[in-house]
Amino acid sequence: MKTLVTYMTQTGNTKKIAEAIYGEIAGEKDIKDIKDISNFEGYNLVFVGFPIIQFDIPENVSKFVKENVAGKNIAFFMTHATPEGAEPIQSWTGSTKDIAASGNYLGTFECQGELAQPIIDMLMKSDDPNMKAFGEMGPSTKGQPDASRVQKAKEFAKGIQAKVK
Length: 165
Prior knowledge:
This protein is an alpha/beta fold and 165 residues long. It has 6 helices and 5 strands; from the N terminus they run βαββαβαβααα. Helix 1 packs across helix 6 (147-164). The protein is globular, with a radius of gyration of 16 Å. Residues 4-156 form the Flavodoxin-like domain. Residues 136-165 are annotated as: Disordered. This is Flavodoxin.
């Protein structure tokens, strides 16, 4: 079985999780930035990772997956700055199921990542009280994803791989 771990990252949070997942995969495997691949051909299992940007899955990731997922075993991993268990996470997980509709959806891992300081600064300047509140949450994300979240990502990878053996 050949596995691809591909990801989009802006601040390194998603790459950190990608590397943890990649490290747990047995057998033939590749890890690549999503901008460096053109399709999922030749892979039996694909992990796709991304950060949540402006409270949504990045459009380029969504489009790429929809165009290439047919017939593929696929799992997702995402990083975000919201606390785990927050309401928007269910919506994002539902969206991964939607974009993988023509493939074999195996699951989604999500964890908190550190909110970058330039984003915190931008949010704090917003006139929107919701955006400002989100910016105020920034310091609580410092150091995420931490070792416990990285370990959960590794466990997720093992569980997904076991589903397709």
